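User: Can you help me understand a structure? I only have the sequence.
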Amino acid sequence: MKRRLYRTGAFLAGRLGVAAVALALTTLVIAPQVHAKDRVSGRHIVGTWFLALDAGPFAPPFEGLFLSGLMQIHRDRTFMISDAGDFAADSFIPTFATPQYGAWKFKSRYGSNKIVATSLYLEAQGETGEAFRWNRVQFKLRVIDRNRVEGMMSASYLPCPEMPPFPTPLTCPDPVENADEFVPDGPADVPVTLTRIVPGK
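Assistant: Let's start by predicting it. Here is the structure, written out as tokens:
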């Protein structure tokens, strides 16, 4: 009897093992296949990129226009952005802005390569030069290949309260400690495209 139970148990274990292997093979077949030359990891997005932000969602007259900038992605999971809006201070954008400084994270699963990133920068009045608010930009990006990244951008801000006689640059709150107090600014999920700057091109 014991031998019969043992043989029955061994038979079932064998069948379950075969089923497990078959399931694993099925998963491998169903999962998107990524060729070695197309595989992307976090280190592959390090470099300098041309950034194009779709201006259409901000106002109908801007349909088909883009705000241009440069994005430098570093190996230590930090990045910098400088765009055309930094130098505005005119009737269209009556303010100046510092470059954006931020951090990024790379996620890869079954060939789907995604980047989530957050940056901060200060905005100042064009006439006085006084900083009056923090701005936060959050990116949700997808790596198309090693030279192209696409995704969405959303912005929010945190004002520097007026506390006379102190100038607003001295009253700007800690943007990390007060992260939950940022207010949405402009349309959400604005399309953005990154194109790698390649030597010789």
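Now, to help you interpret it: Strands lie at 47-54, 66-73, 78-83, 95-97, 100-109, 112-125, 131-145, 148-159, 183-184, 190-196. The chain has one helix and ten strands. Let me know which part you'd like to focus on.
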